[in-house]
# Entry
Amino acid sequence: MIYDLELIKVGKVYDNGTTAVADFDLMVRKGEFIAFLGPSGCGKTTTLRMIAGFESISRGDMMIRGVRVNDTPPERRPTAMIFQNYALFPHMTVRRNVGYGLEVKGMAKRERDEKVARMLATLDLEDIADKRPDRLSGGQRQRIALARGLVTEPDILLLDEPLGALDANLRKAIQNELKLLQRNLGVTFVFVTHAQSEALALSDRIVVMNKGRVEQISPPHQLYTRPNTPFVANFIGRNTIVDGVVRAVNGEVASVETALGLLSGALNGTLAPGANARVVIPAEAIEVVADGPGQAAAVGARSDGNVVTATVQRSDVVGHISHLSVTLPGGRPLALEAHVDKYPPGAFLPRNPVLLAWQAAEATVIPAA
# Structure
């Protein structure tokens, strides 16, 4: 199978010996929306620039549609890149900005004008085609940058945090437009972001990076519910992570002895009894019940024995979301949030004892390192 993009043990080492990216393996099918996600300095933008040809590759191979492009200059690669600041020419009209790449390629004016007109119509930019971008809104400038990238008909569109400069409401609106546009055009998108919500909402698969290395490549739901490593468990979502030692493995469920008692979860990785492990419990999976006589046994019976005592410290409601702050045995604080239907206002008062419970299938047991 020929992939739109294939990275084979790709690495980047700077002249001072610093490793920016190491052993990056990735295969991207045509029409996929891939997000690179990770903290600042993890190597995601460096990888995007290597795909574009703006950064050299120190080792490994970069393939686009089955062709090795390690030494191919940016202008000869079937890619287009959109930067966070959009890099639009303020002295040019929207129409000229969109057609600039075609002009550089030497395309005949008639054909260029036809392509630009179609792209302006596709992105609803016809009404502002003769205006200059410095007089337009952030959302309009973002669409102009998209139009300029897409009009050259690239095999792969590279986007370096293109929504970072937008306010929250506009960012959400543009997210919806971006995903719909990508699906309609069928162009492969590779998208760099540090915002989890963007990656989870937009992408078909997410590449989580940390210190130049890939931690996990998974579809959004799998990444959120089944982290492979402690870094992903800490970085994605709102998880409670409890260290312990594996006591038993029964099929796909592992039981782990922890400071909070014997806890269980779905096994993700290779673990045997005696191995150090971590139980990862998503905040959404945790049921909170007021403690009382016989409650622990009743709750444990319906939650695979996963019951932990806690004390409420604070309870707040913001809009339709309830926020609970509790303290676990040993003094560890824990923040929980859920819809008010799950944690009703006034149901959990400060200093009251509660029970936290979850199903084993909703937790994940991973190797400790």
